[in-house]
Design brief:
Length: 286
C-alpha cells in the first residue's frame, strides 16, 4: 500500500512517519509522490491543508481520506465524486474526551490577557466567563475555569439572542467554542462586541468566521474592550499584530504533542480496523 501525507508532521514527534509506514510506503508531499500518484490508496491530511476536487482527480485508486480532526472545512471536495471512505474524529466522543489541548490553551490565553494586556496584572479568580458553545471543548473550558475560581455562564443552542447579549454585557471574559455553520457566521456581531465592558476580553479558539473581525478590530483600536486573543482568523485583512491589545496565534491551540500523537495513533487503529474488515469480507465471499 502507498500512502501520501499532505501537511506537516507533528512537531517534536520523531516517529510520526514510522507509525504510518506500518501500512506501506509513505510519501511526504505531492512532489515526493509525483511518479506514483496513480498508486496512492490513502491520503492523510491535517487541518491546515485544503483538499478539493482538483486533488481528488489526481488519485484514481484512492480508497481512504484520513484527517485527524473534528472540523471538515478543509475537506472541500464533492463527496459524490469520491468512492472511498473519509475517516475523521467527528463523532468519536469517547476518544475525544481525552483530548484537552484546546481547552488548556484557552486558559493559557486568558492568563496571558489578564497578566500581560491588562493595565495591571489581574486574577481569573472571581471573574465571570461566558462560554459560547457547550460541546466537548466548551465544557472542558468551563470545568477548568470553575477550578480556578471563576463564575461560568453558558451559551448554547437552547439560549436566545437576548440571553447572549446579557453575557456580553456582564462577563469579564467571552470564550468562543461554537461550530462553524450558517447560524454561527458573524454571530459575534459589532453590536455584541460594543456591549462588552471596557475591562473585558474576548477569546476565539474555534473558527474565525464566528466573529465580525472588522468590528472587533475597531473595538480594540477604540479600546471599547480591554483586549482579545485570537487563534483562528477568517481572513488576514483586519486582525494583525500591530494592535497592542490583541494576541494572535496561528491555529496552534490543538498542537499539543500528546494530543497529536494520541489522535494519530487512533486514526491508525481506525484504518487498520477498516483494512481488516475488508479482508474479512473478501474472505467470506470466497
Amino acid at each position: 500500500m502507498k500512502l501520501l501525507h499532505l501537511g506537516k508532521p507533528t512537531l517534536g514527534d520523531p516517529h510520526f512517519y514510522k507509525r504510518w509506514e506500518t501500512f506501506g510506503k509513505v510519501y511526504t508531499s505531492l512532489s515526493d509522490a509525483a511518479n506514483d500518484l496513480n498508486q496512492i490508496e490513502v491520503v492523510i491530511i491535517d487541518h491546515y491543508t485544503d483538499f478539493d476536487d482538483q486533488h481528488l482527480n489526481i488519485f484514481p485508486i484512492l480508497k481512504y481520506i484520513i484527517s485527524p480532526t473534528t472540523g471538515h472545512t478543509h475537506l472541500r471536495f464533492t463527496p459524490e465524486k469520491f468512492n472511498g471512505e473519509v475517516l475523521t474524529l467527528r463523532g468519536e466522543k469517547e476518544f475525544l474526551e481525552k483530548i484537552c489541548g484546546v481547552s488548556e490553551f484557552t486558559i493559557h490565553l486568558m492568563l496571558k490577557l489578564c497578566r500581560e494586556l491588562s493595565p495591571y496584572p489581574t486574577l481569573l479568580n472571581g471573574k465571570t466567563i461566558g462560554v459560547l458553545g457547550m460541546g466537548r471543548i466548551g465544557t472542558q473550558v468551563a470545568t477548568r475555569a470553575e477550578a480556578m475560581g471563576m463564575k461560568v455562564r453558558e451559551f448554547d443552542k437552547k439560549h436566545n439572542q437576548y440571553y447572549l447579549k446579557g453575557l456580553f454585557i456582564n462577563c469579564d471574559f467571552i470564550s468562543i467554542h461554537l461550530e462553524e455553520n450558517a447560524a454561527t457566521r458573524w454571530l459575534v456581531s459589532k453590536n455584541l462586541i460594543y456591549n462588552m465592558k471596557p475591562s473585558s476580553f474576548l477569546i476565539n479558539t474555534a473558527r474565525g468566521s464566528i466573529i465580525n473581525e472588522s468590528a472587533l478590530m475597531n473595538a480594540l483600536i477604540k479600546k471599547k474592550i480591554a483586549g482579545a486573543a485570537i487563534d483562528v482568523k477568517e481572513s488576514n485583512y483586519y486582525l494583525n499584530d500591530k494592535v497592542p491589545n490583541l494576541i494572535i496565534t496561528n491555529h496552534v491551540a490543538g498542537r499539543a504533542i500528546e494530543d497529536r500523537i494520541r489522535t494519530d495513533e487512533f486514526m491508525i487503529r481506525r484504518l487498520r480496523d477498516k483494512l481488516l474488515e475488508t479482508i474479512r469480507v473478501q474472505t467470506e465471499m470466497f
